[in-house]
């Protein structure tokens, strides 16, 4: 599990971002955005597969994975949307394809709709995009994050493991689960886990939800049919809100589609990324 490394850094407005680029520099670019409480690690298999024909960019959001974590850090969806727009400028990507999962969906949508980030096409994988969202667990932790930060490390680790496990329908490999939990451990990781939940406000999607009808680029919504975190009904609602959006359901997959059905999702994404633009001859 040590073969997934992000060797490059960018000093963003919300702290240091770790990132990596895979594939040939002349290939068409695609950026993969992760969600919460995950990291770019969830994209490892699909990133490598797509890198055969694309220049693939992966990154850990500030406060996540191996990017910076620190007290007082702004890791809200508002901050992440700005950081993503900064990164695209830093990478000199004028209009890449973007694939975004969970919170990454809201990040990509905010960067596009509020910060002028241009995309060639956009794939949204079980995204956080429509009200209402936020589980009872999220609300409880958000209201009492200071208390949860003081949990003994072994209880905290058990809580995070159980929470992340519930994102998968068939269940996660123990080594994969360990890797996903690791960033949330220790003196920096434990408070960072509760910090990102405390700052997870629905207002950041409320600000953009009414603008989905103005999206003019090709969009496909991918959704795990067995998603226990965000019901599949939201997939139909989102696809209906974005003009011309396609909906692809992934059977046997929960919220963490990249782990539950990487082969099927990778095949569908390769098809989506290779599709001709509307009106092209």
What does it look like?
- The protein is built from twelve helices and eight strands.
- It is of the alpha/beta class.
- The termini are far apart.
- An eight-stranded mixed β-sheet has the order 1-2-4-3-5-6-7-8, with helices on both faces.
- The chain has a single domain (6-272), classed as Rossmann fold.
- Helix content is 40%, strand content 16%.
- Keywords: Hydrolase.
- Pfam families: Abhydrolase_1.
The geometry reads as globular
CATH A-level architecture: 3-Layer(aba) Sandwich
Strand content: 15-25%
Structural class assignment:
alpha/beta
Keywords: Hydrolase
Pfam families: Abhydrolase_1 (PF00561)
Organism: Streptomyces odorifer
GO molecular function: hydrolase activity
Question: Care to give the gist of this entry?
Answer:
The protein is α/β, with parallel strands linked by helices.
Give the helices and strands, then pairings.
Elements: E1 8-12, E2 15-22, E3 29-33, H1 44-50, E4 55-59, H2 77-90, E5 97-101, H3 103-115, E6 121-125, H4 136-143, H5 145-148, H6 153-165, H7 174-181, H8 186-198, H9 203-209, E7 219-224, H10 233-241, E8 246-250, H11 257-260, H12 262-274
Parallel strand pairs: 3-4, 3-5, 5-6, 6-7, 7-8
Antiparallel strand pairs: 1-2, 2-4
Helix pairs in contact: 1-12, 2-3, 4-8, 6-7
């Amino acid at each position: 599990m040590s073969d997934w490394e992000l060797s490059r850094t960018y000093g963003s407005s919300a702290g240091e971002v770790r990132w990596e680029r895979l594939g040939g520099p002349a290939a068409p670019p695609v950026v993969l955005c992760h969600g919460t409480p995950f990291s770019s690690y969830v994209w490892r298999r699909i990133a490598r597969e797509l890198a055969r024909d694309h220049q693939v960019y992966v990154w850990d959001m500030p406060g996540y994975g191996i990017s910076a974590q620190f007290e007082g850090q702004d890791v809200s969806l508002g901050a992440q949307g700005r950081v993503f727009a900064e990164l695209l400028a830093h990478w000199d990507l004028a209009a890449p394809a973007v694939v975004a999962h969970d919170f990454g969906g809201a990040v990509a949508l905010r960067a596009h709709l509020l910060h002028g980030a241009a995309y060639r096409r956009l794939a949204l994988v079980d995204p956080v995009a429509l009200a209402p969202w936020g589980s009872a667990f999220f609300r409880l932790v958000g209201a009492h994050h200071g208390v949860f930060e003081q949990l003994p490390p072994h209880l905290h680790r058990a809580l995070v493991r159980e929470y992340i496990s519930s994102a998968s329908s068939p269940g996660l490999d123990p080594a994969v689960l360990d890797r996903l939990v690791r960033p949330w451990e220790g003196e920096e990781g434990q408070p960072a886990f509760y910090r990102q939940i405390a700052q997870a406000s629905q207002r950041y999607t409320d600000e953009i939800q009414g603008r989905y009808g103005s999206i003019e680029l090709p969009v496909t919504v991918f959704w795990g049919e067995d998603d226990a975190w965000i019901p599949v009904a939201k997939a139909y609602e989102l696809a209906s809100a974005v003009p011309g959006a396609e909906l692809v359901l992934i059977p046997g997959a929960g919220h963490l589609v990249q782990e539950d059905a990487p082969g099927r999702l990778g095949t569908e994404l390769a098809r989506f990324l290779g599709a001709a633009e509307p009106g092209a001859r």
